[in-house]
Amino acid sequence: MKIKLYQNDIPSNLKLGLEVAIDTETMGLNPLRDKLCLVQLSNGDGTCHLLKISNQSKPKNLLSILKNKKILKIFHFARFDVAVFKHNYKISINNIYCTKIASKLARTYTDKHGYKDLCKELLNKTISKVEQSSDWGSDLTKQQKEYAATDVLHLNKIKDKLEKILKREGRTKLAKSCFDFIEQRTNLDLQGWADQDIFKH
């Protein structure tokens, strides 16, 4: 695994292709309250690009990837990351793939749908989540960099594995519909309906 660290934006000449795994690290789990500190990107080639957010300027090169409808953005629990980007940069993100949703639709034989679980079962890789709850607003330690990079390192391969199961079970279209709804689900989250099931009687 190679790790490249940038400050406040990624290079304009960084080409990651049409499928990019993306993750965020924040100061907490409330997109309205907690600061965005780090963005991780990888196209599955073994290199992870870490973008440290330390000022209020918009990362134009990152945003061009997020707003590009031709690029498939792969997240694990996209609902959170998309809401973070939407709140901070007032952008809409389309062409989303969420491995957590895909797992819940494909792997109905288990209730373990965390990234660590998917790495272990689908790729036979054991990863550590020790640094998950740490201070991402400070200077990054070596351990934090490795943890953050690992969070996107395997997403492309996990997506490919889940796609095969979804196709086998006849749930590909259902998954796509759920991915498309993330745009509205995050609107509900940010406008006050995060914990209320509006479909419930």
Give the second-level CATH assignment, the architecture. 2-Layer Sandwich
Superfamily (CATH H level) name = Ribonuclease H-like superfamily/Ribonuclease H
> How are strands sequenced across the largest beta sheet?
1-4-3-2-5-6
Largest sheet report: 6 strands, mixed
CATH-defined topology: Nucleotidyltransferase, domain 5
CATH class: Alpha Beta
What's the overall average pLDDT, rounded?
96
Specify the structural class: alpha/beta
Number of DSSP strand runs: 6
Low-pLDDT sequence parts: none
**Net shape:** globular
Descriptive notes:
This protein has 201 residues and is of the alpha/beta class. The protein has a single domain, classed as Nucleotidyltransferase, domain 5 (2-Layer Sandwich). The chain has seven helices and six strands. Strands 1-4-3-2-5-6 form a six-stranded mixed β-sheet, sandwiched between helices. Helix 2 (78-89) crosses helix 7, helix 3 (99-106) packs parallel to helix 6 and helix 4 (115-123) packs across helix 6. The radius of gyration is 16 Å and the shape is globular. It starts with a strand and ends in an 11-residue tail after the last helix. The model has no long low-confidence stretch (mean pLDDT 96).
